[in-house]
């Protein structure tokens, strides 16, 4: 009996040591608990609602502008589609036509640009000059100084800051600048103002899946829009 008990104890000790030292291997990943899945889904829902066209988000955005000054893409979409703001694209006409534009936007360039052959570089280069009629053109088209303008360029800085300053000096008070400019907008909305696939992907994660995992939605990475790989063209 003692010998058998000793063997049993040795066996238990060996098993204990092997369990402590051996790494834990599972045949399939652990599943999140229901509460964890609900928390994940809830956090995603909050993030999804904090954007256009959520009614609360739209209402809060319209109340925050023009005092807030600079709008991100979601806020800009709310101002443009729900707030009566004119999307004023101040890029050069050449850039506006070749790089892309927001449907329904108005192009009045703060800078004029054209291609010109440079014999020293043996290639065409962009020749730029200030548009002396920028403010005059806007005042002719929009004489009401209460007109709401959402001002955008390529990246939100290159031309927009000068345009916002000129419009402010001209007496226009309802001004908002688009953070990131057209290229930031392009990554979220397509040329029909529809949200791009990345946004649809996130919505499917929230509404279509039965767990907190991305693949539970049935969405595949191959559906992610090519805008994610977009490289802005150069007009310098």
TrEMBL record:
CDD domains, per database record: RHOD (cd00158)
Gene Ontology molecular function: any one: catalytic activity
Domain Rhodanese per the UniProt entry, residue ranges: 81-194
Pfam families listed in its UniProt record: Rhodanese
Name used for this protein in its record: Rhodanese domain-containing protein
Organism for this UniProt entry: Apatococcus lobatus
Lineage: Eukaryota, Viridiplantae, Chlorophyta, core chlorophytes, Trebouxiophyceae
């Amino acid at each position: 009996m003692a010998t058998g008990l000793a063997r049993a104890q040795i066996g238990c000790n060996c098993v204990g040591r092997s369990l402590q030292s051996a790494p834990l291997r599972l045949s399939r990943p652990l599943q999140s608990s229901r509460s964890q899945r609900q928390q994940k889904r809830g956090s995603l829902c909050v993030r999804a609602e904090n954007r256009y066209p959520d009614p609360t988000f739209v209402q809060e955005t319209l109340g925050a502008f023009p005092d807030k000054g600079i709008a991100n893409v979601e806020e800009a979409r709310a101002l443009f589609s729900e707030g009566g703001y004119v999307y004023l694209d101040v890029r050069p006409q050449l850039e506006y036509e070749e790089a892309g534009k927001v449907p329904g936007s108005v192009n009045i360039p703060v800078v004029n640009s054209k291609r010109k052959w440079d014999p020293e570089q043996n290639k065409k280069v962009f020749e730029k000059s200030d548009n002396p009629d920028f403010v005059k053109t806007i005042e002719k088209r929009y004489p009401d100084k209460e007109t709401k303008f959402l001002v955008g360029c390529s990246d939100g800085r290159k031309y927009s800051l000068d345009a916002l300053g000129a419009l402010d000096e001209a007496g226009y008070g309802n001004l908002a600048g688009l953070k990131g400019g057209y290229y930031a907008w392009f990554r979220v909305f397509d040329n029909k103002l529809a949200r791009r696939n990345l946004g649809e992907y996130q919505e499917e994660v929230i509404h279509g899946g039965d767990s907190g995992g991305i693949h539970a939605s049935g969405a595949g990475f191959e559906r992610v829009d090519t805008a994610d790989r977009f490289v802005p063209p150069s007009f310098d």
